[in-house]
Write a structure and sequence with these properties.
Length: 179
């Protein structure tokens, strides 16, 4: 069975926009070092592409949280699956996410990370679905694309763990029974 995927943002569009955001971030952090926190697994493609284009010094760490089951709706319960390896004390932390939807994951994460005495915490996301926001207090500093309320895949984003490797952002339109 294959899903039909409609392209929402092409690889060229995504790459160009990441370049713009990276330039903006490099300017904002001039003279400082950024500690990038990649939120696994979805944030990994975006984090790599972003990191390659930053002109300020960068360190990186990874963390994994789970807020979804196998489907497309947030459970509202956030579980810390893998914690960071490094301390955040005194660091300029930039959290890198694939998408902000209800905002539950980030609202939880920011509260947890704030306790660890970073110099500051900012948030960068590839995609933002503001119509879906439940946690209105989540402030996003860098957004590559604001998208409508559709379930998207590709560039790290999955549907039931599939499609993360697509080099573009697409919408799963329908499931076909014939192949
Ligand atoms: P939130 O806690 O509702 O903001 O959800 C954030 C997480 O849900 C993201 O990091 C994704 O892993 C997942 N998610 C939300 N919307 C989508 C989507 O359209 N496609 C794939 N994953 C999504
Ligand atoms: Mg995610």
């Amino acid at each position: 069975m294959a899903d039909k995927i409609r392209v929402l943002l092409t690889e060229e569009e995504v790459d160009a926009r990441i370049g713009e955001i990276a330039a903006q971030i490099s300017k904002d952090y001039e003279g400082q070092e950024i500690h990038l926190i990649c939120i696994l697994k979805g944030g990994v493609f975006f984090t790599c592409e972003l990191a390659k284009r930053l002109s300020v010094p960068v360190t990186m760490d990874f963390m994994s949280v789970s807020s979804y089951g196998g489907g497309t709706e947030s459970s509202g319960i956030v579980k810390l699956v893998k914690d960071l390896d490094e301390s955040l004390e005194g660091k300029h932390v930039l959290i890198v996410e694939d998408i902000i939807d209800s905002g539950r994951t980030l609202a939880y994460l920011i509260e947890v990370l704030k306790q660890r005495q970073p110099a500051d915490i900012r948030l960068c996301t590839l995609l933002d679905k503001p119509e879906r926001r439940v946690k209105k207090q989540v402030k996003v500093d860098y957004v590559c694309f604001t998208i409508p309320d559709e379930f998207v895949v590709g560039y790290g984003l999955d549907y039931d763990q599939k499609y993360r490797n697509l080099p573009y952002i697409g919408v799963v339109e329908q499931e076909r029974e014939d192949n």
